[in-house]
Amino acid sequence: MKAIILAAGQGARLRPLTDDRPKCMVEYQGKPLIEHVVRALRKNGVNDIVAVRGYKPEALRCAGVRFYDNPRYSSTNMVTTLFCAEQELEGDVIISYSDIVYSPSVIQRLRATDAEFAVVIDRDWRRLWQERMDDPLDDAETLRLDPDGHIIELGKKASSYEDIEGQYIGLLKIAASAWPKLRAFYHRLDRHATYDGKDFDNMYMTSFVQAVIDRLMPVTAVPIQGGWLEIDVPSDLTISVSLG
Predict the structure, then answer these.
(1) Residue 199: how many CA atoms within 13 Å on its side-chain side?
(2) pLDDT band at 244 (very low <50, low <70, confident <90, very high)
(3) CA-CA to 232 of 20 to 30 Å: which in 29, 125, 126, 144?
(4) Which of 152, 223, 216 is nearest to 186 (CA)?
(5) Residue-level pLDDT at 159
(6) Exposed, middle or buried: residue 152 (CB in 10 Å: 0-12, 13-18, 19+)?
(7) Nearest 10 degrees: Cα torsion 26, 68, 177, 80
(8) What pLDDT is recorded for position 139?
(9) Exposed/middle/buried for 67, CB within 10 Å: 0-12, 13-18, 19+?
């Protein structure tokens, strides 16, 4: 199994901390964010790790990690960044955002699923969102499940807490058997269409996952109860999360 870390972004809302480094090199609990991600992966035996860089690539350093680059990072989004490492999209692959930190137990739960396409969701998301912001609904997105634990909707603007059965955290696992279908599906998508209001190059990962759900294959939720944190603004760096 390998992991691909999407690490192209600057993180403008973390300025001035990101004036001279990409977002994933901002420190939390004394280490760059990406080092927390790599540690959680290696604790679970995932040692083949790739990161896709973009903003200030020369400042992204992490021992034992292989690098690809998204030269169009400033005008593209997560899905385009992932496919900059398309030759790595084979075998079982964990895909992680680089502006999140999480306990190794989160990776353990993700590794344990045998689903072709699995997405980690936090059932206890509201506790964390209340710590991060005055009104959790301002930022939270929809996530609805069917009775079998498959995601049927994610990534939309939530109008009530009933729309949210968990929160997508930016961590996925895709099995080897799914990649031929997924790569072909991605390349067949209409380059001139919009996806949740974004053009093809700026498609959100949640929009891509929703398209997969609607048109290709089931996506299985892997529920957790906390144990992670998204770093988006400076105040997030003050929130204490146990990373095991």
Answers:
(1) 5
(2) confident
(3) 144
(4) 216
(5) 86
(6) middle
(7) 80
(8) 82
(9) middle
**For residues 173 and 96, is the Cβ–Cβ distance under 8 A?**
no
What is the pTM (predicted TM-score) of this model? 0.95
- Token pair listed for 154: 């994610």
Handedness of CA 35, 36, 42, 43 (dihedral sign): positive
Amino acid at 7: A
Burial of 45 (C-beta count, 10 Å sphere; 0-12/13-18/19+): exposed
Torsion angle of C-alpha atoms 35, 37, 39, 41, degrees rounded to 10: -150
- Token couple for 172: 């996925």
**What CATH architecture applies to the domain 2-238?**
Alpha-Beta Complex (3.90)
Residues facing residue 172 across a β-bridge: 95, 119
Burial state string for 168-177 with b = 16 or more CB within 10 A and e = fewer than 16: bbbbbbbbee
* CB-count burial class (<10 Å; 0-12, 13-18, 19+) for 181: middle
Provide the residue ranges of all domains of the chain, joining segments of one domain with +: 2-238
